[in-house]
Amino acid sequence: MKDDPGYYDYWPYSNRPKITWPNGAKLAFWVAPNIEFYELNPPKNPSRAAWPHPYPAVPGYSIRDYGNRVGHMRQTKLLDKYGIRGSISLSTALCTHHPEIIDMCRERDWEFFTHGIYNTRYTYGMTEAQERAMILESMETIERAVGKLPAGYLAPALSHSEVTIDLFAELGGTYTCDLFHDDQPTPVHVRSGRRFVSVPYSLELNDTIVYVVNKIEPRRYGRMIKDSFDRLYAEGATSGTVMCIPTHNYQVSCPHRLSAFEEALEYITGHPDVWVTTGREIADYYLAHHYDAALADIKSGRKA
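Predicted structure:
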């Protein structure tokens, strides 16, 4: 295994070529609902157990089912209220298991990008051919369901191989959410040489990381979102930034958590010069207007 996958170069945040977003926006804002399907008894993977306790894993399975039965409806209503089109990180098995959810999102012109097939089947241990087939199947499932191939990819349960991003680029993708290294889009090196970018997707604001890993209370989470926005909005006056809130319908949409999230959305969308958009639109705009200048600056070898 290589010590560094080589997807990007060191490129200082200061003095980069200026990013200008549509209509002079300082910040591109997107919400990425992870709409996932978990299996109660998935095939075993030697590198990672799907559930922390023995079969049947009823608590973990049923709270995720709650998300697709109840939480999704709450979050959809909330995003509608603030004019936000979700960019769905989709377990594509949902197209078979819960097509009603797909219909609700398609009617609202939400973006669909792929998050693999099941969130209980990991990339670990796959051959390159197996991983390619999995990614391709997930892309083709989305195309059949909504009439458009997905542009973005987030590996299922954040499980990767050394060639995950290369494979997705070769299959026609244009952006990844799997690199958490910047607050602006950046060019990504892929072995095919295709034009490919990383669109910022925040683990720090991911509600599962916040609630399950870091044990943060809802009001504090709402404050974190606002503080992140304030910093990125201020820096965006110099060069456009990106802010992403990744959510899960079984986390943020629980009754005691939703109001803090709503207050944060009201705060963000109440500011001028915010481009409320999708991951695909950010990637497409960056590729069309800023990718070449960024690549030239990186190749110049500037270190400060």
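Summary: The mean pLDDT is 96.
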